[in-house]
Structures are given as structure tokens and as C-alpha cells.
Amino acid sequence: MSMLACSYSGYWISDLLNDNYILRTPQQVLAIIVGIILGLLIGFVVGGPVGRLTVNIFDELELAFHKASGINILFGFGGALAGLVAATFPSIALFRFGYPGSVASVVLFLLSGFIGARIGIIKRSELSVIFKVSPSFALSGESRAIILDTSVIIDGRIVDIARAGFLDGIMLIPRFVLSELQAIADSADALKRSRGRRGLDVLNAIQQLDNAGIEITDEDFPEIMNVDDKLTALAKKTGAPLATNDFNLNKVAVIQGVKILNINELAGALKPVVLPGEDMRINITRAGKEPEQGVGYLDDGTMVIVERGKKKIGSQVTVVATSVLQTPVGKMIFSELSEERPET
């Protein structure tokens, strides 16, 4: 393609020279032939790099579209279209200035389209509210919406999970959850006030992510007074999963058929698996409930109970896991001192 384009360019330049009578009739055919040959040679030289560059550009575009969510593509396209429309009238005036005006008009169109697309993607949450894009529409795209409750917002780990790419798309914040969070942030109690403000900071952090955004939904259930019951009803109506750390809400919602994303369960699933017989290095920090027991913790917070470890409080020791107990609140590892384990 590059060789054909360059050869045609050579022909066009030669023909332009002929139209201006720079060349005489015997020279015209030769000029056209020379122009075509030069165009082919230039195309042969630059065709490879240009072709590879073109392929790379299209590959990057394909990869970008593959990663982008449907809602981002929609608002990006809408923003680009709005930018092109906005550039139409200034471009009409620029065309009156001849060739420089035409070049400026093309540049204006490109910049306006790009800026409009970026604004559409960055401000998609606000635009979805203005144009009444429903939560069910967000659910029909490539990435699903997730309803966040107050506990998971204040917890804050949802931001790191989304930033790592494990969650993306729209995160639905019901207006009644936002009001509850605001009430906590305005509390007279210093601890509650700190937790509430942390939750608001978490929402701001989510809005800054490229792969996620926040949509405030005014969907409410006036006949339901309890916030947990409202969240369950909203999740059932929209079909969106509910992210929560509330143990009781988790149980009640699951009974009613709501899909739950529990951050604590996720954290537990990501803890390293410890099998009986494995060695561990821990610090024994306190005495256990049983006589002579010591208690230490792994880096992920898992409790390790050490038989006859009380005498090692304050020391770092090597222990051998003997059994692992799974409880509703996490894992407990029972172990004994490696130095006291009988050799086999």
C-alpha cells in the first residue's frame, strides 16, 4: 500500500509540473515515469517501517477497546461526537483562510474530539445521572455494577482491589448510604467522625480510578426503614452484587438470594495456606488461654497458638503447625515449638 501511494504521489507531482508547463511534451512521459519509479523506490524504503507502525497503532487500539468497559466506550464516543459538533462552526470560519485554515480546521477537529472523549470518560458518573442512565443499563455491559454498603466504604480496601484490576465498572452508592456516611462524618464522636471522613475519602479515590467510577442512585424504598433491608431490596431489584463487611447483612442477604462480595472473606481466601508439618517463624507475644500456651501472629494476622510456648514470650521462634482450625472469623493454627518436636 505504501508503494502504491508513493508511486501515485510521484505521478501526481509529475502531472502537476506538466500542467504548469514546466516540462515540454517530450519530457512529460519521461517525467511521469521517473516520478512513478521514484515513488516506488520511496515506498519500498519507507513502506516497512510505516507498515509496522500502522499495525502497532491498530494493535494498541484493539487492546485499548478490549480493556475498556462498555460504559466507557459509550460515554467516550458521546463526548467525542459532542466535541466534533462544537468544532464545526469555528472550522467553517477557518476554511475561509485557504490552505492554512484547512490545516487548522483539521487540528481543531482532532483536538475537540479527543478532549470531548476524555471528558465523557472522566465525568461518566455525573453524566449518567444527568442523562438518567439507569443502573440496569450499566449491568448489561461488559463489566457489572456493584452496590457498596457503608461498612465496605469505610473499610477502604475496595479501592486497592479495584486499583489492582479485580473489580471494575460502576460502583452504585444509594443515596441513603451516602446520607448515612455523611451523618457518621458529622458525628460528635471523634472516632465515628474519623471513620466517616475516611469513607468520603474512599469515594473520592474511587472516582479517580480509570477502570471504575461511582454512580449515586436515588432508588429508595420508603416503606422500608432499615438501611440493610433497603440494600437487600435494591440488590434484588437490580441484580447487582452487594459488597459488604457486615456479617449479619451478609447472612440475611444470602438467604434472600442476593450475591454478596465480602471483603473479609476475600482477604481470608488470599492468606497463605499452612499445612500440618510446615515450619513457621513467629514472635510469641502473649500467653494463651490454656496453661503454658503462647500466642503469636503471622504477617497476615492469622493467630498461631503454640503449645508450651509461654516461656518464649517476647522471642522469635520456629514452630511446626500441627493442625489448622477454620472459624467464622478466620483461621487459627495450632503448633508446637520446633526444638521440642520429637525427631522422626
Automatic annotation (TrEMBL):
Q: Does the keyword Thylakoid apply?
A: no
Keywords for the protein's UniProt record, in alphabetical order? Hydrolase, Magnesium, Membrane, Metal-binding, Nuclease, Transmembrane, Transmembrane helix
Pfam families the UniProt entry points to: PIN (PF01850), TRAM (PF01938)
Q: Which residues cross the membrane?
A: 29-50, 71-95, 101-121
The protein depicted here goes by the name PIN domain nuclease
What is the required cofactor set for this protein? Mg(2+)
Write one Gene Ontology MF term. Answer: hydrolase activity
Does the keyword NADP belong to this entry? Answer: no
- The TRAM domain covers 273-334
Q: Which SUPFAM superfamilies match?
A: PIN domain-like
InterPro entries the record matches? Nucleic_acid_metab_PIN/TRAM, PIN-like_dom_sf, PIN_dom, TRAM_dom
Question: Which organism was this protein described from?
Answer: Candidatus Anoxymicrobium japonicum
Q: Which domain of life is it from?
A: Bacteria
